[in-house]
Design a protein that fits this description.
This protein is mostly helical. Helix content is 68%, strand content 0%. The protein folds into two domains: 1-52, Orthogonal Bundle (Arc Repressor Mutant, subunit A); 54-196, Tetracycline Repressor, domain 2. It is elongated and about 60 Å long.
């Protein structure tokens, strides 16, 4: 079908979703605004209304990825924060949600963190990237407040937890878990980590 004049209801969202799929299938280097326009059935110039070039699309894709990650983690941790018995399940659910997101979109995740830590990272991207860490910190603080875990710097605890589960996801994406099911390893790591946070 030949490209149609620009009249798409939500072309920006369509392009972001198509771009996310494209980089998982073909890699970042192969991403093409013209190809995305063809797939969306619009003229090759239509995407420029939202993204001036490929780099702008990648910036938006990384920022959108962080927003979607934060939303997934938020949804996974809606249990009662004041219930001590729920503190552990909230931690486990957060870990599982992060690993699931990472395994579903490993190329996007690599793009997200690579761009977040670039010297010229945009303020909007940095803010979006911080949201998931802040949510993890809130889970830690809530667990400390109800006495489920001992004291400690919530930011460092959250960063250590993030590092552990990001590492598991990275190894799983590369097929480097030596046959251990990823969900089993996530549960094992969660158990070890949580026991390490208990009061002495």
């Amino acid at each position: 079908m030949p490209p149609q004049p620009y009249h798409h209801g939500d072309l920006r969202r369509t392009l972001l979703e198509a771009a996310a799929s494209s980089i998982e299938n073909d890699g970042v280097d192969a991403l093409s605004l013209r190809q995305l326009a063809r797939e969306a059935g619009v003229s090759h110039a239509a995407p420029s209304r939202h993204f001036r070039d490929k780099q702008a699309l990648l910036d938006a894709l990384a920022e959108d990825g962080f927003h979607r990650l934060a939303a997934a983690l938020e949804e996974a941790t809606r249990n009662d924060e004041t219930n001590p018995t729920a503190a552990r399940s909230r931690f486990d659910d957060l870990a599982r949600a992060y690993v699931a997101f990472a395994l579903a979109q490993p190329t996007l995740l690599s793009l997200m963190f690579g761009m977040k830590h670039a010297p010229d990272a945009r303020a909007e991207l940095l803010a979006a990237g911080q949201a998931s860490m802040e949510l993890t910190i809130r889970v830690v603080v809530a667990a400390q407040e109800v006495g489920a875990i001992g004291p400690g710097d919530p930011h460092r605890i959250a960063l250590a937890a993030f590092s552990a589960f990001h590492g598991i996801a990275s190894l799983a994406s590369g097929g480097l878990l030596d046959g251990v099911p990823v969900d089993v390893l996530v549960d094992t790591a969660g158990d070890i980590f949580w026991r390490g946070l208990q009061r002495g």
